[in-house]
Write the structure tokens for this entry.
Amino acid sequence: MANIQHSIQIAAKPESVYPLIATAKGFAQWWAADITESGGAVELGFFNRATIYRLRLTLDKPTQVDWLCETGAEWIGTHIAFLLEARGSATVVRFTHGGWQSETDYFTSCNTTWGELMFRLKSAAEGKSRGPLFLASDMAY
Amino acid sequence: MAEIKHQISIKAAPEMVYKAIATQAGLRSWWTADTIAGQKVGGKAEFGFDKRAMVFRMKIEKLDPAKRVVWSCHGDHPEWAGTVLTWDLSPEGGGTTLRFTQSKWKSISDMCAICNSTWGALMYRLRDHVEGRKPGPLWKK
């Protein structure tokens, strides 16, 4: 099993970061524009829905949010966890995308993309949103 | 020994990507404005952050035009000292696949996770620079 791990400090309190990582509306601000909710899960569409990731919320606490991925050749069965730790008036986000079968090229590309996404999450939480990295049909710049 | 691995596709020839990682002007365009980089194997590459509150000091180990750049880090950050940074370029359908590894970390620490996120964002910035979108460096002077 392989894991992707990231960490970033955000100049905002955990309660401001939480909605960005726990809701479809939140994801749409920094991750993917094409996002819908259905049956207790969220579906994120990439490149005109050539890829769809369906994520189910499995833990929903103010300082920890876990998602289970239910689709995708390499993502199925993987889990995404956001841990929020208050540090003064700031938040340290510890992120894990775990349970990968192996360290493929796609695993490495996703690691890179998660790094960029952490910075977009930070911008959104700090009120300087750059918008989502993935538009419905293409990537944003 | 832990390592950080990244991968990104860039819509430009390997020669163009090489300029961005092997020359002072290139490195100043996406990483830190405070970069001093030699042009020869055995020379120095120095990267300053926040008015040189931190400097990453490298020795240039390999310069293989359009293919590979290797640096060894010897300071000043205690966790970076001893790490080896390798940039590999391979042509892919008119563009380039960039593979980056920072190896020989002593352990998977918080700093390692923070740097992993930052490298991810930097890969996107490097790509944007090479593809002509002028993102500027993540660390300005």
